[in-house]
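Narrative progress, year one. The postdoctoral researcher (J.K.) led the effort to move from monomer predictions toward full complexes, under supervision of the PI. The following entry was the first complex the group processed end to end, covering 394 residues in total.
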Amino acid sequence: MTGYHLAQLNVGTVRAPIDSPELAGFMAGIEPVNAIADAAPGFVWRLQDGDGPGATALRPRGPDFMVNMSVWESLEALRDFVYRNGPHLDFMRRRREWFHRMAEQHLVLWWVPAGHIPSLDEALSRLDLLEREGPSPEAFTFREPYAAPGEEVGGSGVIEVAGAAQSR
Amino acid sequence: MTEISVIAVLDDPVRRRLYDYVTAQAHGVSRSEAAQAVGVQRTLAAFHLDRLAEAGLVEVTFRRPAGRSGPGAGRPAKLYRRSAAEHQVSVPPRDYRSAAELLAEVVDVTGAEPELQRSARSRGAAAGRAARRQAPHVPDADLVVGALSAQGYQPYQEEAEVRLRNCPFHVLASKYPPLICGMNLALLEGLLEGAAVNSLEARLDPRPEQCCVALRDCRNSKNNDD
């Protein structure tokens, strides 16, 4: 265990208003999937706005722009939840029914000191950094992950990924 | 060993049967168990199992007999289980994997997953219809297990589910999980539909080193949530 936790931000633009029939499956799935996340090994924290399910009421970049943000004890813990949990994988399988494919980056990962709860502004600036400069230890993706500070893996800091990789 | 000599190791009927048996099991298989399953002498089974292990087609682990340790506990038993390594030989040379990876990337980049799932569903349905035509009176579960085995899934029964020991799309699925697992689910949903199998339903339930899809007996569980 290191003194760092992994923070994650996902963004997406919805294909229809959240109260429309097109988004009904998505909206209905948020609470059950979040409950699984909350109970998952290595889960630390997730963003909630108190108004809608999850963080659906927060629209930092326009009415269609939704965010999802959480902190995990390790990259492996997050990866297990994202790709190896049935209900979450099923949710991801259907994402194109609900979200536009974004030309820009839609996921960013970065390390935070354990105990630090990142703000949405901080998260969005990491996303912008990834978009501007590509993956780095400050802002990366599942496909090109970096080890936590002080946890050197190889020369470049890039972890060998044998398993899943996040789609861009 | 070159790929072709690895494959050539399987060119012996007894060895091939041992390989099929070992790779279909979830547990490490002892020499005695394998010998009994295939109907040969233990020493012959041991000989062939070790050839398979040398070629990397199966992996070897050791287990001490339960409750015994230290000097005098006896030799640990040699157990054989499926290897994660993949071997491909194509004559003449073909490279479908690179093509598949490129196509997957493009589906991912363009967000064409709904179209991929639709195509997969019709392809699965065609396979299901063909299987049903060939065996019109076979019970549902047997028909499905036969059709899935023919496509390399290595199905096995676990309580009220048919689980799939092997992911036929392993490399792609580990690179593009939602895309390939979604495609696979659609293929299998289509197969059940085409074969007119109403007693089973396909759902995503990934487990390490297995296929991400399981087929659940849905005759008595229509009202269950899960």
